[in-house]
Amino acid sequence: MKKLKFPTAHTILLIIAAMVAAMTWLIPSGQFDRLGYDKEKNEFVRTGQGEPQSYPATQETLHKLGIKIPLEKFTSGDIYKPIGIPGSYHTLPPRPQGFMAFIESPLKGIMEAIDVILFVLIIGGFIGVVNHTGAFDAGVAWLARRL
């Protein structure tokens, strides 16, 4: 009997992608309403279901919405992205992923991360050439002699 080996990284990623695609059929989708700070108008903007709503940028507004963050965090720019509002979760229409979305997902991922992929390939090639020519070893030896 042949001994089982641990699967390769590609196999593990494929299994994880298949499990995530299957979960889109089982787990209901939803999101929280979000509260963002508009510096120009000095007000909070609540986005979610329906039209965006504006609120005055006061600590009282934050307390009414159940947010226990000081107002200064928003006005100083420490918090610059919209945050979730407690108790505002609502479900969204389901968007289950089919077989074609599962097949296309690696290609979309490669297209979105091509700059990082090319950077890693170029750096790897540069390091390979430097190692192959012996320049790295010579540089380290020279540095060791100088110190």
Structure commentary:
The chain has helices at residues 9-26, 59-64, 71-75, 99-112, 114-133, 135-146, and strands spanning 30-31, 34-38, 43-47, 53-56, 83-84, 90-91. It is α+β, with helices and mostly antiparallel strands. It has 2 domains: 30-91, no CATH class; 99-146, no CATH class. The termini are far apart.
Topology of helices and strands:
Elements: H1 9-26, E1 30-31, E2 34-38, E3 43-47, E4 53-56, H2 59-64, H3 71-75, E5 83-84, E6 90-91, H4 99-112, H5 114-133, H6 135-146
Antiparallel strand pairs: 1-6, 2-3, 2-5, 3-4
Shape: flat
Structural class per helix/strand content? alpha+beta
Q: What composes the largest sheet? A: 4 strands, antiparallel
Helix tally equals 6
Estimated share of beta-strand residues: 5-15%
Strand order of the largest sheet: 4-3-2-5
Query: What is the CA-CA span between the terminal residues?
Result: 58 Å
Number of domains: 2
Tell me the series of helices and strands, N- to C-terminal: HEEEEHHEEHHH
**Rg, nearest Å:** 26 Å
Mean model confidence by pLDDT: 93
The portion of residues assigned to helices is 40-55%
Poorly predicted segments: none
The total beta strand count reads 6
